């Protein structure tokens, strides 16, 4: 085969690989610079933030803090930075709870470096106990605590039971326009959301977006925007 064809073939292959990489590269620009890749979570995060804006969300609560700040946007999601930034820009406030004091310290450091500390409160606690004691109406709930395991069924069951317990602990503080996002659902065994999604669907919640993360609400944006942020 002539050498020109071989070179052309190699160039086409390199081009296709670069294109595939580019298509999988998903940033949250303009919230964060393009260099941060949110991969499989980008689309659900983007839709969630748009819904929070439409519903004028003010109180955001997350279980499982982003101990790595922006260092693992693709692997972990950098939730505390993403929701903290959104909160700062929209006059809202994020509560981040984690059972691990070191994780909270590291997350607080990352949040401080981003100058977001006035928009985020940190709580060292078991998430269920924290949610049971939380008194304010919750406009947005993000569930991402007890780690899931793709292979260990006992861990899967414990993680799913924990996320259901979290939802039950805060359910009285959620309202008609609240939005709930659950991480790590698109994995073998149903992920963190399996039990809580079953429960929510049986109690009037609808799946608004079903992906690696699952987004749920009780009413469309058009109706929710009338009552959001109360
Ligand atoms: C997957 S990480 C959270 C990732 C984070 N949301 C992010 O976007 O980077 C899970 C976190 O949940 C915490 N966790 C595990 N069990 C918990 C519990 N019972 N209560 C509160 N936090 C818990 C862990 O300490 C860990 O920091």
Can you summarize this structure?
By secondary structure, this protein is α/β, with parallel strands linked by helices. The chain has 8 helices and 7 strands; from the N terminus they run H-H-E-H-E-H-E-H-E-H-E-H-E-E-H.
What structural class results from the helix and strand content? alpha/beta
Task: Report the top-level CATH class.
Answer: Alpha Beta
Proportion of helical residues: 40-55%
Largest beta sheet: strand ordering: 3-2-1-4-5-7-6
Low-confidence stretches: none
Give me the CATH superfamily.
Vaccinia Virus protein VP39
Average pLDDT, rounded to a whole number, is 93
How much is the radius of gyration in Å? Answer: 19 Å
Overall number of domains: 1
- CATH fold assignment: Rossmann fold
Total of helices: 8
Bound molecules: S-adenosylmethionine
SS elements, strand count = 7
Helix-strand sequence = HHEHEHEHEHEHEEH
Strand content: 15-25%
Fold and architecture overview:
- It is built from eight helices and seven strands.
- It is globular.
- The protein has a single domain, classed as Vaccinia Virus protein VP39 (Rossmann fold, 3-Layer(aba) Sandwich).
- The protein is 42% helix and 17% strand.
- Helix 5 packs parallel to helix 6 and helix 6 packs across helix 7.
- It has a seven-stranded mixed sheet with strand order 3-2-1-4-5-7-6, sandwiched between helices.
- The chain has 230 residues and is α/β, with parallel strands linked by helices.
- It has helices at residues 3-24, 42-54, 79-89, 101-113, 127-133, 153-170, 194-201, 221-224, and strands at 59-63, 93-98, 120-124, 138-143, 174-182, 206-210, 214-217.
- The N and C termini lie far apart (71 Å).
- The site of S-adenosylmethionine has 22 residues, from strand 2.
